[in-house]
Amino acid sequence: MKRKTIKNIQTLNGVGIHTGQNCSITFKPTTQGYISFIRTDIANSEPIIALAQNVSSTLRGTNIANKNAEVHTIEHVLSAANGLGITDLIIEMDGPEPPIMDGSSLPYAKAMLEGELNEIDEIAEILPLNNEISFAEGDITYTAKPCEEFKITFVYERKGHPLVAHQEYTFTLTPEDYLREIAPARTFGFEEEIAYLQANGLAKGGNLENCVVIKKDGFSVPLRFDNEMVRHKILDLIGDLKLTGKVLGPMHITCHFGGHKTNVAFAKKLTEQI
Ligand SMILES: [Zn+2]
Predict the structure, then answer these.
(1) How far is the CA of 3 from the centre of ligand 1 (A)?
(2) Distance, CA 26 to ligand 1 centroid (Å)?
(3) What is the per-residue pLDDT across 225-262, written as a single tens digit (0 to 9) for each?
(4) Which of 123, 146, 178 is the last residue of a domain?
(5) Is 260 part of the annotated catalytic residue set?
(6) Distance from the CA of 205 to the center of ligand 1, in angstroms?
């Protein structure tokens, strides 16, 4: 598999879901060999490479930082890049957090496709899996087993909830299926958590256009898939796994309950197994 970037610069604008700040995000072609973010609103700021070792926080999103700059909530943008097989990309931002758009990764993926994917004449660095590995933290578990293709099984549970008690989905990654089955799945939150999030300075940019709010008796907006929640969890995991800095080889990853903190820990574990 060859490395991939885009041909033409693409820009999106909007508000960040947690900071509530406006931000313009620009995707630029490169052959640097990795994905990096740069804060254009901070003087002399250095690029921040999308790697697990640069993660600075995983509270309701994945943030990465270097000594003078931080970018928040990068997982949906990275998911779009990973889903489309993009290995080389410069992502410029004039604020701390990408615009949340509609809460899914589809607007980013569409922008990248509009920028025209462009193969680089270099072989992508593949992260192979030789033996089964697993990782657990409390009730959260991950396993990766050798397989003929790259696929993820995710089990999402909210025990006792009348609408989303259990969702399970298996997804085999191809760019076409990513665009159709995963990219449209939106960010979600529970009605009872919104006040807590906002009291803690989070979800300031959340609204009915970019987040599915789950109530006891219904959803704030019509769902795009019956199991949109578990599909979004897979979207997030595909984004966080890009922090390995490599293209994941054929393997079957199974995850129960995972979130950003454990996704990043698992990305590190996958990187260290070789
Ligand atoms: Zn997400």
Answers:
(1) 25
(2) 20
(3) 999 999 999 999 999 999 999 999 999 999 999 999 99
(4) 123
(5) yes
(6) 14
